[in-house]
Write a structure and sequence with these properties.
- The chain has about 290 residues and is mainly beta.
- The chain has a single domain, classed as Porin (Beta Barrel), CATH 2.40.160.
- The protein has 1 helix and 13 strands.
- The longest helix has 12 residues.
- The protein is globular.
């Protein structure tokens, strides 16, 4: 679960591709905000990206891979930097289409207000609740989600920062198997190689519900007694699925490049390991995108 920001302290958080624990787009956009550090920004932003996931159905066996194209349009208001306590706001509309599992295509809308506290000259504390609605071609996965993202960032040098964050997500899907609650904590570090090129690396640990595909390699499935709850057949994945409590570890790398005053590009890679009673699944996911501010 799950990816994706604006100026130094802006926080645009959207929920994401339905198969990434509801988090990939949020993480990607938040990462871009930190990577593409700049002065306060208020205005429209549009972008598109192409990506892949090697285990889109969260199977404990080999898993199924897929590719996607997505686009978004946001209005973002970042902190001015002139006040110790400031507010932020973003509204985002997003859509995506998938190559193999076409029923995972979706459109979503997200509202994310936030507060930013600057203290000590080098520390930034932010809190951003969010509310998102998503309509998926596979209506079983259509959902409303809400939660909060809190982060603390420390500016070590002009070109380097580290930080920690907490993310709570409550996703209410049409079908209970795809609903989940999740608590995640993470650490991140960013470095500006030049005024136009920056990178960020992060690690995230989370605990929460997740759907799992009950393939041949799933614990107990061969005996006809798979674990988990809310079993059902998924037309979108063409397989039996179940929901269970899992532990997830994810390591990611994001790269941001400013191509001009308004144009930017971004790319990222994430390795994810999910452990549960049904077994262990791993995935490799990546994306490349471009965006424009106006």
């Amino acid at each position: 679960m799950s990816g994706t920001r604006r100026g130094n302290d802006r926080h645009v958080i959207t929920r994401r591709i339905p198969v990434h624990s509801g988090r990939t787009t949020a993480v990607c956009l938040f990462g871009l905000c930190l990577i593409l550090s700049a002065s306060a920004f208020a205005g429209w932003e549009a972008g598109a990206k192409a990506g892949f996931d090697t285990n889109i159905n969260r199977d404990t066996g080999s898993g199924e891979n897929d590719q996607f194209l997505s686009g978004y349009l946001s209005f973002v208001r970042g902190p001015t930097g002139e006040r110790r306590l400031d507010w932020t706001m973003s509204t985002t509309a997003e859509g995506a289409a998938f190559s193999r599992f076409s029923d995972l295509g979706y459109v979503s809308a997200t509202v994310t207000p936030g507060l930013v506290l600057l203290y000590g000259g080098t520390h930034v504390l932010s809190a951003s609740p969010f509310l998102s609605a998503k309509s998926v071609i596979d209506s079983d996965q259509s959902s409303v989600s809400f939660g909060v993202h809190m982060a603390l960032r420390h500016q070590l040098r002009r070109d380097m920062y580290i930080g920690e964050y907490y993310l709570y997500t409550d996703n209410r899907a049409e079908v209970e198997t795809f609903s989940y609650t999740e608590h995640a904590v993470g650490i991140f570090s960013g470095f500006a190689w030049t005024s136009a090129v920056s990178t960020e690396i992060k690690y995230e640990f989370s605990r929460g519900d997740s759907f799992r595909s009950l393939g041949p390699g799933t614990s107990g499935s061969a005996a006809g007694q798979p674990g988990g709850t809310h079993h059902r057949f998924s037309d979108a994945f063409g397989a039996e699925i179940a929901r269970e409590l899992v532990t997830r570890h994810a390591i990611g790398l994001n790269i941001g490049i400013l191509l001009g005053k308004s144009l930017f590009s971004r790319a990222g890679y994430t390795f994810t390991n999910i452990d549960g009673d049904l077994g262990t699944s791993t995935s490799h996911a990546g994306y490349f995108g471009v965006g424009y501010r106006f």
